[in-house]
Amino acid sequence: MNVVIMGSGRVASELATLLDEEGHGVTVIDLEPGSFEKLPDAFGGKTVIGDATDEEVLRKAGLSSADAFIALTRDDDRNAMAAQIAKHIFGVRKVICRIYDPLREEFYKTLGLEAISPIMVFARLVKGRLEE
User: Considering the domain 2-130 in this protein, what is its CATH number?
Assistant: First the structure.
């Protein structure tokens, strides 16, 4: 599977590393070149410096042949915008975006985006554990 990940923070770098270790093709896009230092030396994927809301940057990252796009920056608006571009312009089959604001999570789902709020995931996890 070919996966393009927007952002190279802790979560994105961990996910990119796990996917790479499983043999998937992984490309990580970030605005800051220094962000790629979170990736291990053994990372076999590709890194692209640029704004993942820019179609040219997404083309350079190989989004037109990607099976999945995952937006994992700290910016909800940029994550949603890039996810919409991936889904509606590039036709990527699986698009996931992290949304910090739980109120926006439902709104972005109405746009056809698979939006995940870490806050809500954590709340549901804790609630489930309390019910055990």
Answer: 3.40.50.720
